[in-house]
Amino acid sequence: MSKNMELARIFAEIADVLDLTGANAFKVNANRKVARTLEEAGEDLAELARTDPARLRDIPGIGDSSAKKILEFVTTGKVAEREELLASIPAGVPALLQIPGLGPKRVRTLWTEGGVDSVDTLRTKLADGSLGGLPGMGPKTLKAIEESLTFLDTTRGRIRLGEALPVALELIAYLRNAGAVTRISHAGSLRRGKETIGDIDIVASSTQPAALHEALRNAPGVSKVLVSGETKTSIRTAHGMQVDLRTVADAQYGAALLYFTGSKEHNVRLRERAQKMGLRLNEYGLFKEDATAKGTPQERGEQPVAASTEESIYEALGLWWIPPELREDHGELENQPPKDLIDTKHIKAELHCHTTASDGTLSIAGMVDQAIARGFHTIVLTDHSRSQAQANGLSIERLRAHIAEIRAVAKVYADRISVLAGSEVDIMVDGTLDYPDDVLAELDFVVASPHSALRAESAVATERLLAAIRHPLVHVIGHPTGRIVNAREGLSPDIALLAREAAKHNVALEVNANTMRLDLRDSHVRMCVEAGCLVAIDTDAHGAGDFDQLPYGIATARRGWLGNSHCVNTWTRAKLGEWIASKR
Ligand code: DGT
Ligand code: CA
Ligand code: CA
Ligand code: ZN
User: Fold this and answer.
1) Domain check: are 264 and 371 in the same one?
2) Which atom belonging to ligand 1 lies closest to the Cα atom of 199?
3) For the chain, what percent of residues have pLDDT higher than 90?
4) Closest ligand to Cα 358
5) What CATH number is associated with residue 223?
């Protein structure tokens, strides 16, 4: 975990406990803002605290006292204020905040008036009906809390892709430095780009495997060694992630990587195919099958047909190299997935992002510079609409001033990048949009998103989103279900139906690339591909660092078999411009 994320977590915890204990709102918000700034920072702020503390203090949102805490963390690995605050309340109380629908105010009521001091006591007291009389805890609220708990049960122990991948890549870089690595890669569900990861798998070939296993046992951030032998080491990190390292001879690296990438179901299908061809596939290689001989092919010392690379194994099985994201036994052996499968390097436009006008941390020009640095030809600024009061959504008056400001910036940048004035407009509960049509018509671009009433019935949600798709001024439906991975179930509309309607109206459905969202999800993207509708992949950036979430959205889209041509963010400046203009 990068130091920024670790620090962000500390400031968020400080804010949570302050909030729970009724500290003043200014202090709570100041800590939340620091957490947000850290999450979105494009550079390592712990490093900056070490090398240039004066510049750290200059970063908006980071005051003297927070800079001191960052420095304290850099030197001691801890922030005393956090430790003291956490010690001042029951250990199980902060976890209550992770339950969807429970904010600090409700948790305070449950804790101080209902005697709820952990998730377990909450379960017990919900079951025995003893929370009924608490202020603000009507039967509807209690039922919603119960549903949230049920949902959380299904996510237990799985880590979001965007949390696991940086940890894995950092460990891989560390192991490479530990020496004697010939080839190394992450494998398992992480390599397949699944939205949540059970554990991190790493496969390596090395001339000194023992040194590699020793290096992992001694890696920074390891809290426990679970097993360690000649070919496998499993450790647990301080953040509770399990990491499995397997080492193999380099000649078998491809077979091992294939095996440990999975999925199990894909591997089963490959083995069946091998069998039909008179071959035998295992983690050591692809061998000629000899049913009369004793033992395994490698025990007999036989040379494999293929083993060193995944490509050679797939080729010997008469298949193209199947990208890891597609290895789910979702028809990838029988049907050729798109030749132009979407890739991060194909993305040339960001169509959904925020500035300081609403809840972002960078100015218009600041965001434009980020887009240029990533080689984009188009960026659309889409700040929040007026209903989003807590996100500083723009009134019509402020929106008009903001449009004028964007147009002025656009002129300055005209020869380098298209800078367009958009808005992320709320889709209201009844399916209407948060600005009147004449105001929407003044914008170049409209992303329409649901942010409220995210517990609605499926049929109601479908109608609400259909109305937005049919609106002639809308380009993109943003994060269509509003789910938060591992935290909020969100809407469950009929996505196949939405995709067919979107295709009819030339509207794109979004894959929000933020690792918290990944919305639409992989299976939904597949429905879009089948319906032939347009898909937008956007980071919904609120600051510089958020642009780096793009690969998570791409992985999700690849898992849904999305080809380049249906993703509007891959189009040329001219083609994209034409589509945008077609809605005006
Ligand atoms: P996860 O960690 O729950 O997100 O999912 P995976 O897919 O990473 O599963 P994991 O870590 O248990 O194992 C990694 C890969 O190793 C898995 O995708 C396929 C392979 N593998 C593990 N155990 C078996 C097994 O018993 N049979 C087969 N065919 N493959 C296995
Ligand atoms: Ca795994
Ligand atoms: Ca594993
Ligand atoms: Zn949004």
Assistant:
1) no
2) 2
3) 76
4) 4
5) 3.30.460.10
- Ligand 1, atom nearest to 271 Cα: 29
What range defines the domain where residue 182 resides?
159-248
Determine the residue type at 9: R
The last residue of a domain, from among 138, 154, 170: 154
Note whether 514 and 501 are same-domain residues: yes
Judge contact between 288 and 281, C-beta under 8 A: no
User: Is the same domain home to 171 and 134?
Assistant: no
Do 73 and 102 share a domain, yes or no?
no
Instruction: Report which residue type is found at 101.
Output: G
Residues 148 and 164 in one domain: no
| Ligand 1 pocket check for 416: Cβ under 6 Å | no
Q: What distance in angstroms lies between residue 64's CA and the mean position of ligand 4's atoms?
A: 32
Which residue of 200, 257, 264 sits with most ligand 1 atoms within 8 Å of its CB, as the best mutation to test the pocket?
Answer: 264
Assigned token pair, 245? 């390292």
What does the pLDDT look like over 234-278, one tens digit per residue? 999 877 889 999 999 999 999 999 999 999 999 999 999 999 999
CB distance 234 to ligand 1 below 6 Å: no
Domain count, the chain: 5
pTM of the full predicted structure? 0.83
Domain boundary among 248, 277, 311: 248
Residues 6+ apart with CB under 8 A from 333: 269, 270, 273, 319, 322
Q: What residue owns the CA closest to ligand 1's atom 30?
A: 264
The answer as to whether 61 is a domain residue is: yes
Which residues, in sequence order, are bridge partners of residue 157? Answer: none
Strand partners, 285: 282
Which of these ranges, 205-209, 237-241, 387-391, has the smallest mean pLDDT? 237-241
Distance CA 103, CA 192 (A): 34
- Name the DSSP class of 222: E
Atom of ligand 1 nearest to the CA of 201: 11
Closest-approaching ligand to the CA atom of 232: 3
Is 90 exceeded by the pLDDT of residue 501? Answer: yes
Query: Do 369 and 505 belong together in one domain?
Result: yes
Encode pLDDT of 297-353 as tens digits.
777 888 999 999 999 999 999 999 999 999 999 999 998 888 899 999 999 999 999
